[in-house]
Model the fold of this input.
Amino acid sequence: MKNALIATVLVLAGSLFVQVLSASPEDDVRLYQDYFKKRFPSIDFQEFANGVYAISAQQRENWEAIEEFPPYEPFIERGESMWNTKFSNGRSYADCFPNGPGSQHLYPQWSKEQGKVITLALAINQCREANGEQPLKYMKGPINDILAYMAFESRGQLTNVVIPADDPRALEAYEKGKEFYFTRRGQLNFSCDQCHFPNSGMNLRSDVLSPAVGQTTGWPVYRSGWGTLGTLHRRYSGCLKQVRAKPFAAQGEEYRNLEYFHTYMSNGIVLNGPAARK
Amino acid sequence: MGVLLKYILISMVTTAMLLSAGLFAGVSAYDDTEFVNLLNTAKSAQKKASSVGGEWRDVGKFIKEAEQAAADGDFDRAKKLAQKAKTQSELGYEQAVSQKGKARNPSYLR
Ligand code: HEC
Done:
């Protein structure tokens, strides 16, 4: 009897242990979102789409003033004309994006054919190359125009990253992104979560740290510090440089997997790009 | 002297010249072997760190600056910079490897 009890306890403890080790993405997203709901109980969940401005009243005031004359508007206009201009072979972006420019909610997505995570920026360049056009640079420049237009046309859709069950490599990519996120890097030995989970809302020099959930909804972002629009992967590199780690290649496997994990945690939050940040 | 012999002599001299040039290039442009060894160790440590995604931000810069200092003849500075690149690369490698497969939801979340 006593032995049976011990055995039962051991089995229960064991299964609990395994659960902790192999949290499913659904468990993760609940865990992360609940964490921020508890940490900022007075904030409407959809407000997390506004990053630091959801949680800092003072910074929000500056931001609302900026949003009266959005600095990203000319980029949207240029992106719209890119969308409407035919490639030299007579085809156009519309041939690659059957849902039209408002397709951001479909990305990042797992491609079974290519066996990798396809981000919107990568899909744009694959479209260009398939049609004989030069690919665009991934951090600065015109990629931001077309991304801004597509983001604008996608406003109001919800983040909805899917990890298809019919291809175990998709879950693997998610797990790799998760590992990247929680790994300490650089001379300062920081992981992403250290700044954007338990220190969210705290000051780091002149910045207030934004919560991790909601960080992916507004890209591309006009940052006053950049004086222009930049991509999410440019931001990833900026954060890595802050902790004195060598950044990775924009749209390389590391960042695409990271984006897959990082965007998944905002599932259910509204897309609101392009956005402006201080 | 026969034409053949002349030809052989010329090709021998040319070969010797090419070999010695190659030899010097192999030893490197810097005539401080201690620095050269240190620089090579630093570079392979950098590669090793990078292969596990653990390279730190300024290692590449240190190596470039070390090479510049050596080119300017300031081998003290060159060695210090190469040493820094080597140490940081080793730390970055350790940092990455010690966490491989271990990074998961931290305890404050559970
Ligand atoms: C040393 C602290 C620190 C670390 C570590 C850090 N960041 Fe940041 N991050 C910041 C600061 C400061 C900002 C700018 C203020 C803000 O929005 O949080 C920022 C902003 C961001 C933003 C933009 C949010 C927005 O609304 O525009 C994203 C996305 C982001 N970080 C992701 C990451 C990821 C992914 C990692 C890990 C690779 C990471 N950060 C690591 C400090 C950090």
Summary: The longest helix of chain A spans residues 2-21. The longest strand of chain A covers residues 109-111.
